[in-house]
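Teaching soon. Got one?

===
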Amino acid sequence: MNGDTLYSIGELARRTGLTVKTIRFYSDRGIVTPTDRSPAGYRRYDVDAVARLDLVRTLRELGLDLPTIRKVVDRELSFPEVATAHAEALAVQIRILRLRHTVLTAVAERRLTPEETDLMHQLAQLSEDERRDLIGDFLDAVFDGLDADSAFVGVRRSMTPELPDNPEAGQTRAWVEWAEMALDPDFRAGVRRMAEHLAAEQAQGDTTGPHRDFAATVRDLVAPALAAGIDPASHHVDPIVTELAVHYARTCGRPDDTELRRRLLLRLESVNDPRRDRFFQLLAVINSWPAPESLAPVLDWSAEAVRVRAHR
């Protein structure tokens, strides 16, 4: 094929895969212009029109508008600059679509009401500063006024979600649910009570070394018996409950007596809130941490073991 070959609009359509109507549309707008006309007045296009139309089709499929396409094919605009601008615009659109998908998926899965959906949509769209304010407000409500020693600094940090700049859908869903829990006054009050228990234990107990998490200590003491399927009412559990009570008495700086056992039971029941498990599961998703184990089984078992002996 030589450079003098000219094509009718129909031939051009067959070579490019575009319709005659589409080529005529581009031609009328000056995006691809005819090289000549036949004696009868029909448009004729040279080989450059094929390459130009291929480029136009690609740019249209990438979402560029016609005025921009014309400037690109006429080299009035640098295509890399145009591509950069459109990529940035698409990134914003993708984020918006992800948020919409997240909200709609949660609405379907959790069967939310219109009012709950509205709250979820608002939480999903919070700016970084707004998220930081919400998190700070929750943590302040939990820890304000308590002894801010190194242990509480670590606990506070371990309860802080850090949503990445480009979160996955699962992270966004987890953030919204976490935020809903953090805004719940009843949940806040429950977490506050746990923090107060910890503060009281640290103030009254042995201060010669760091305090381990109460629930983790319970797990270490009772997990073998639970795994072995031992009934919490069995006399074989007596030494375990005694060890648990002695540990708690040392933590609280109190003797192991009836009042201590009552406090121990209340402590086990307060920390065994199913929302606590869910809260830390969501936090792990948001922060890309390993999924935490559920402590509910060991706490249920321990509370029953203490309760049975309190009524003997």
